[in-house]
Amino acid sequence: MFCTMFPYLSWQGTDLGTGVRMLRFVRKFSVNVFKSSSLCNERVYFSKTKMRLVSVTWQDCSLRKYSSPPGDIKSLHSVINPHISRIRNIGIMAHIDAGKTTTTERMLYYSGYIRTLGDVDDGDTVTDFMVQERERGITIQSAAVTFDWKDYRINLIDTPGHVDFTVEVERCLRVLDGAVAVFDASAGVEAQTLTVWRQADKHQIPRICFLNKMDKTRASFTYAVESIEQKLKTKPLLLQLPIGEAKTFRGLVDVVTKEQIVWKSTSDLDDGKNFERKLLLEADDPNLFQEVHDARNTLIEQVADLDDEFAELVLGEYSENLDLIPADKLQSAIRRVTLAQKAVPVLCGSALKNKGVQPLLDAVTMYLPAPNERSYDFLQWYKDDLCALAFKVLHDKCRGPLVFIRIYSGSLKPQSAVYNINKNCTERMSRLLLPFADQQIEIPSLMPGNIALAVGLKRSATGDTIVSSKASAAAAARQAGRDAGGEKRSSSDIESLLLAGVEIPDPVFFCTIEPPSVAKQQDLDNALSCLQREDPSLKVKIDPDTGQTILCGMGELHIEIIHDRIKREYGIETYLGPLQIAYRETILNAAQATDTLDKTVGDKRHFVTAELEVRPRLGEKAMTKPVIKYAASVIEVLPKELQGAIENGVMNSCIQGPLLGFPVQDIDVTVQSLTVHPDTSHTMLSACVSRCMQKALKKAGIQVLEPLMNLEITVSEDHLSVALADLAQRRGSIQEIQSRQDNRVVVAAVPLAEMMGYSTVLRSLTSGSATFTLELASYQALNSQEQSALLQRRMGLV
Ligand SMILES: Nc1nc2c(ncn2[C@@H]2O[C@H](COP(=O)(O)OP(=O)(O)OP(=O)(O)O)[C@@H](O)[C@H]2O)c(=O)[nH]1
Questions:
Q1: Measured in angstroms, how far is the CA atom of residue 98 from the centroid of ligand 1?
Q2: What's the pLDDT score for residue 383?
Q3: Residue 258: which of 193, 191, 323 has the closest Cα?
């Protein structure tokens, strides 16, 4: 599907003149296949596609710095690989429906990369290109697009807002240098904003806040800013003030320069390209003038508090009159505090009404960091050698997997071999493409800081680290090992230092999936392995008892979308079993067990006697990996190579607990004694340890744990009581009821088992007016009654 949606143009490295001519061609005719009449069936897609050739004048090209004459190598190079200080890798993140896709669409439009404005509600935006995204009006996959704004190259990633796709957000954050957090100005900080904000904190990503939807009836700049300050515990720097609010919103004032930016046209058809920018004078609006004057002084004070260099200016040269502080000095200081993540610039606008997006783009280039202004720990071990991260995979029927790559150091060239550390394999890359808006342009090389699409990598998956060769990976590992304290760190610790991967939380839902006939099983397996490479939060396993394929996902919507994609993209009509909860198991007491394996295979005798102890682990954070220790008498004589086999045996027994077959968490395991005959294979040793573990776990008494979810419902006062009554029946415990403008926000903890089909129920209870988000909080123990009821259900007794 991708090749029909993203036509690409190419040139080969040596013929640069042709390359430039090709670029001119790219600019002249932007092929927009998104206005296709058919978005549904991939196989008929091509024949039904109406290619729309949009003429772009040569003047347009020159504005976008593509005007260099054929053969000008320097400028061609800057088109492909701009100077690193001119690159911005940014993400757009927010709560569901805050307006990320609409804002991205406007950015592409104003930068000249699309000729018509797409609309989420009409299902024709560039970044929401999956059929399911267009139908549902939500972002499911992150989309990476490249465009130029003024003199800057912006690689932008539009991330999903729905909580089921949080992993997608997390893995994108890994490759971003900065982010724009979009808010609905009438709602302020919402549940999912908090989650993505925490994720961005974890990856230390400098941010800008954009208060979108300033045109909405209940939009309130003050309310949204207060909620940012209180809920996100951050220091908002107000760089703009709105002119008007809700219906009267028509522009903004740049607090730094004191310029007013006003969109004169009130027509919904106006594309917002034309606006007036001029100094705000007292005579224009005395109240607003005073407000801006006060806001600028507050901003200066805030920044001076956070930045010593600026404080010196304020206290010295300009102490008599803060009005005289030049805008560029203030901007530089704002940039420094933003990069240091001491504060967050706040801007506002209405993406839908085409207001405020151009100043937002200016702020992105002005205040967010270039790749060389960020520090990445793992880079110190690669120096100038290649280090890149595969952060997204798309399957294209014509060209195979397309892998989005962010390059951190070294360089990448097409037709070259690279080494994938995670997969421990060497792969050949055939082509490199830049994802310019809705086209792809083939490039001859990729330099640090940039993002591109690699064609030909058959095994690389989302989250893999790519380097130049196995030797380079080994050298980096040696260096990392030395820096990390040599022998004291295990090899897996060192590996994790080298890998720039993403932590994937365990899925909370699962169900069986069956093809329409046995003959289609192989096709289904292929489809699932492709989807898994794209989406590491999707897990697929085989039920050891029934042999059925099990699909495990992050939520109802996640599984629904996967089911739909298998049908539409791979043409397989599958049947899903009922959705089930992924419980966990843990132990109640400490216990010991002994096991002996004595087997002769051929002329070899495999003999193991193991004695293990298991104990409940009392940590704050749930741990699915058991902590394995060895008694002193064992570790003294245990050959290192047997350790791996023992640990495999322990891990395997924890994948399926002894009571219901769910993963076992929070246990400590001690190998008390071990006797191994020299001929014993590692597989036999693992098998014996695994069996011994199962015995010990059973003796220790099993407790089933269920996923407990954080629930946040936004509901009107009228429907509050009915929503609360319903929650009480779902074993929900209400933690807080907050006010959000005219609405109430109920914060509660509810077992996931009680939330099946909740969206339909809530919709009917509140006439569709309430919204909710659900996020995994922890695992809690079932009481004995609930546990035995669950056991009976699982055994088919009730
Ligand atoms: N009034 C108003 N509506 C807006 C504005 N921006 C977006 N919308 C509407 O809000 C809805 C959600 O917009 P999207 O751009 O899809 O939001 P999103 O954050 O990308 O949504 P997800 O990807 O599903 O999380 C759509 O109906 C938009 O038309 C705005 O500035 N004002």
A1: 5
A2: 78
A3: 323
